[in-house]
Amino acid sequence: FNSFFKLKDNSNINKELNILAGLAKIDKRVSFHTASHTNATLLLYNGANITTVQKLLGHKSVKTTQVYANIMDITVVRDLEKTASSKK
Predict the structure, then answer these.
(1) Number of Cβ atoms within 10 Å of the Cβ of 74
(2) Which keywords label this protein (predicted)?
(3) pLDDT by residue (tens digit) across 8-47?
(4) What is the reported pTM?
(5) CA distance 43 to 51
(6) Mapping DSSP to helix (H, G, I), strand (E, B) and coil, where does residue 18 land?
(7) CA–CA separation, 8 vs 32, rounded Å?
(8) In this structure, what are the phi and psi dihedrals at residue 7, rounded to the nearest 5 degrees?
């Protein structure tokens, strides 16, 4: 990872991520934490096992990782509501 960014400081990595986001026309501040959070959410959304995500994120407790699974629960509810409203 550090070989790609050639940086070791988290604040410098965040600066580089924001430059990349700007180049991609993403009008939102991003950080390493944001990228990690998005990755975890997408992994769970696509069916990854929560203990796999826990290990990837370095969480000692699966309860910490469960936060991402709770986000997925909200996504499921929204998708069901969207589907129900489109049938009306």
Answers:
(1) 9
(2) DNA recombination
(3) 678 888 998 899 999 999 998 889 888 888 888 888 888 8
(4) 0.62
(5) 11
(6) helix
(7) 12
(8) -135, 150
